[in-house]
């Protein structure tokens, strides 16, 4: 995994009622839906739901699947022929602090849970999370504990 930087990063803006500036069809959008409290993501889900009505019904499924897998994947949803993978970064309080995303030509992105690419992505996100103080396991929901254990094993 190579680090890449942009001269002008696009950052989601956190508003009192939720988020804006993030696309829920991308893995990072799925990470936000999965790891931020629903009251913070409701405006994102509703806005995206106007474009993709299925998202309204799928938000809970996305939340569960992404937490269970430890990463999110998309294939050609935004740009045909491109795919992306994203894994969450947690801060010292266990809150979502960001994500690491791999974007590339679909034939080069392996989204399978047991792939080298996914394992490297989750390991890198875990390392960054540790680096900014993520250690907490107690007090988490059962599926969060399982996710933490699954990420720790990789």
Structure write-up:
- The chain is of the alpha+beta class and 154 residues long.
- Helix content is 44%, strand content 19%.
- The protein contains five helices and five strands, in the order ββαααβββαα.
- The chain has helices spanning 27-35, 38-51, 54-69, 116-131, 142-153, and strands at 13-15, 18-20, 72-75, 82-90, 96-105.
- The strands form two sheets. A three-stranded antiparallel β-sheet has the order 3-4-5, sandwiched between helices. A two-stranded antiparallel ribbon has the order 1-2.
- A hairpin with a 2-residue loop joins strand 1 (13-15) and strand 2.
- Helix 2 crosses helix 3.
Index terms:
two-stranded antiparallel sheet; disordered N terminus; 3-stranded antiparallel β-sheet; flat; alpha+beta; 5 helices; 154 residues; 5 strands
Topology:
Blueprint lengths: L12 E3 L2 E3 L6 H9 L2 H14 L2 H16 L2 E4 L6 E9 L5 E10 L10 H16 L10 H12 L1
Antiparallel strand pairs: 1-2, 3-4, 4-5
Helix pairs in contact: 1-3, 2-3, 3-5
Briefly, what is this?
The chain contains 5 helices and 5 strands. With 154 residues, the protein is of the alpha+beta class. The strands form 2 sheets. The chain has a 3-stranded antiparallel β-sheet with strand order 3-4-5, with helices on both faces. It has a two-stranded antiparallel sheet with strand order 1-2.
């Amino acid at each position: 995994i190579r680090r890449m930087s942009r001269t002008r990063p696009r950052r989601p803006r956190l508003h009192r009622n939720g988020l804006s500036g993030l696309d829920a069809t991308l893995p990072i959008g799925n990470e936000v839906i999965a790891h931020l409290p629903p009251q913070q993501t409701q405006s994102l889900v509703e806005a995206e739901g106007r474009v993709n009505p299925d998202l309204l019904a799928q938000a809970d499924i996305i939340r569960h699947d992404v937490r269970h897998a430890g990463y999110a994947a998309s294939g050609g949803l935004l740009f045909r022929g491109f795919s992306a993978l994203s894994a969450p970064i947690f801060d010292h309080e266990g809150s979502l602090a960001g994500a690491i995303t791999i974007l590339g030509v679909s034939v080069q992105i392996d989204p399978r849970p047991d792939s080298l690419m996914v394992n490297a992505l989750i390991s890198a996100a875990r390392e960054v999370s540790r680096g900014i103080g993520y250690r907490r396991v107690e007090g988490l929901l059962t599926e969060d504990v399982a996710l933490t254990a699954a990420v720790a094993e990789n």
